[in-house]
Specification:
about 20% strand, Fumarate Reductase Iron-sulfur Protein, Chain B, domain 2, five-stranded parallel sheet, alpha/beta, about 450 residues, 17 helices
Length: about 450
């Protein structure tokens, strides 16, 4: 244990670089060719396979696994990319344990599914390592489409439109494309700058111009885009972060978990990222787990996730919860923050026990304190300003069918639109389907 682990406050360098390198290594080692063949051999190649129905992008999973079994990983990758052009990232970050692998017949029969995610990574990595791009553009259509947001939905939409022969200009508010793939996913899930490598590979299709540093409602306006382009796709995500609405929220070292994760993802040296000794993460989703686990991996001594509802109501999968506890993270459920103690810096958090009954969630008068020198908020995000007079539903852009908004000529998908479940793979499906509908509309 490094001396800095015992240092109070939020400091950098709690662990030695060697320990940090080990902590932030690839969560799942990739298959080699022999391991992939062995894993593929477990597949029953089911007729009407339930794993396909469980995949939001409807990848023909038995087909690509059979292609791996036949020694054709390039063909397997093409099968994947036909449905999900970000299949490489999704192989790393998809909650396969609650999607395709949960639906696997082997899971039902033996409690051990075919390792679909790792097989998908083997196939996609094999092709991407060659630098080859398996698609070519169709003849130019003369149509120009604006894609706002270079996250999973925007990237999938832009690629499919470019493949159809349209010219695409993709705008993003940040310095790098990728959206949550670049800024919002735990570092140990996507190592070696994979998000940027995947974007560069995707852009080989041609016909896509990227403009960074352009935020909707600031540098670019929806009305101007409508005038200049034949269609507009919005994949802007959810930039607004919900507030705790608890006394003392303004204390130093109380910050948004998404910003903490982004800082860690963009750090060239993780030893420079400050972390507390006693960290409390408020929330029950994947972001809460990612922030908590990475705090522990950075050297925090005590890390606690606090969620206001029972544990079975957490949106983080059981696998993610077990990952957190295996790293030494404590999970407290049925409690909500009421006050953050401290002077200039936070020193603790007071929580009240909650009751989740037929009338909804209520807070009791019984409270307790947790020591905390850093509090990370992972309680959800919201749309940061609705573009124009666009209809909303539940705080998101209302869409009909394949992403059609209430404004003619404008489509939307990903986290900013209704109907999704805030997953990378779902965003890809929505961007892809919107692109197909845009193409059909423009060419009809």
């Amino acid at each position: 244990m490094a001396n800095s682990e015992r240092t109070p406050g939020v400091v950098a360098g709690r662990l030695q670089r060697e320990a940090l390198a080990e902590n932030f290594a690839d969560l799942h080692e990739p298959f080699d060719a022999h391991e992939a063949l062995v894993a593929a051999d477990r597949c029953y190649f089911c007729y009407d396979a339930p794993c396909i129905n469980a995949c939001p992008t409807s990848i023909d999973i038995p087909l690509f696994i059979r292609q791996i079994q036949a020694g054709q990983p390039a063909s397997a990758a093409k099968t994947i990319f036909d449905q999900n052009i970000l299949g490489g990232m999704c192989a790393r970050v998809c909650p396969t344990e609650t999607l395709c692998e949960e639906a696997c017949v082997r899971e039902a029969a033996e409690g051990k599914p075919v390792e679909i995610g790792r097989l998908q990574r083997f196939a996609t990595d094999t092709v991407m390592a060659t630098g080859a791009h398996p698609y070519a553009r169709a003849a130019g259509t003369g149509k120009r489409i604006a894609v706002v947001g270079a996250g999973p939905a925007g990237l999938a939409c832009a690629h499919r439109l470019a493949m159809k022969g349209h010219d695409v200009v993709m705008f993003d508010a940040r310095e790098k494309p990728g959206g949550l793939n670049e800024y919002g996913i735990a570092s140990y899930k996507t190592v070696d700058a994979f998000a940027q490598a995947e974007v560069a590979w995707l852009m080989q299709i041609g016909g896509i111009k990227l403009e960074t540093g352009h935020r909707l409602g600031h540098e670019i306006m929806l009305e101007e885009l409508q005038d200049e382009f034949d269609a507009v796709f919005l994949g802007v995500g959810l930039a607004g972060v919900n507030a705790l609405r608890a006394e003392g929220e303004g204390h130093a070292h109380v910050r948004d978990a998404v910003d903490f994760i982004a800082e860690l993802r963009q750090a060239s040296d993780v030893s420079t990222v400050p972390v507390g000794r006693d960290v409390v993460v408020i929330g029950g989703g994947m972001t809460a787990v990612d922030a908590a686990v990475q705090s522990k991996l950075l050297g925090a001594e005590h890390v606690t996730i606090v969620y206001r509802r029972p544990r079975d109501r957490m949106s983080a999968s059981e696998y993610e919860q077990q990952l957190a506890t295996s790293k030494g993270v404590r999970i407290i459920t049925g409690a909500a923050p009421v006050r953050l103690a401290g002077g200039e810096h936070v020193t603790g958090i007071e929580l009240a026990y909650t009751h989740d009954g037929p009338d909804g969630l209520t807070t009791t008068a019984e409270t307790f304190m947790l020591k905390a020198d850093q509090v990370l908020k992972a309680i959800g995000q919201h749309l940061d300003g609705a573009p124009g007079a666009m209809a909303l539903d539940g705080g998101k852009i209302a869409v009909d069918g394949p992403g059609r908004t209430s404004v003619d000529g404008v489509w939307a998908g990903g986290d900013c639109a209704t109907g999704g479940d805030d997953l990378t793979v779902t965003a890809v499906a929505e961007g892809r389907d919107a692109a197909e509908d845009i193409h059909a509309t423009l060419m009809s």
